[in-house]
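Batch manifest, entry 17 of 40.
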Amino acid sequence: MRNLAVLIAFAASPVLSAGLEIDVAGEANGTIVIDLFEDVAPLHVAQITALAASGAYDGVVFHRVLDGFMAQTGDVQFGRAGADLSMAGMGGSDLADIPLEVSDIPYTRGIVGMARASNPNSANSQFFIMFTEYPSLNGEYTVVGEVTSGMEVVDAIRRRDPGIGGEADVMTAVRVTE
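Output type: structure tokens
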């Protein structure tokens, strides 16, 4: 609970416009630039930026990449490149889970959302980038940002179904920008 209180305090403080730069290596190579929506999802943006600033996302793979849907990453517990990825997608961080922050922003190409379990208040560290419009996610998952540059890198990320396995592209470095 203490971690959630820190995030709430951070989210309530004035924040300059934040973003992420994600360097990707593997089948895709390049940088993805994301504008984070701290006014829409302040708790989620605070958590993502805290994890990125600490280096937690560096070396984490895109563990679930489904054609016509999305590319998911951010499992800082079980999604490390070079490790056994059989549990990738089931972990999170040491920080508290975050309650759903609903907005009216639709899930379209390039939108970044927070992954979660069946409990709507279980988002932690994992996020996904949409390849296409997916209306069934609208209002059900927190929208945290949008890709502003590097969508061609997102499109090139190696497709991977966690149930089947295979090689995975990796976020080699994730930086917080202003």
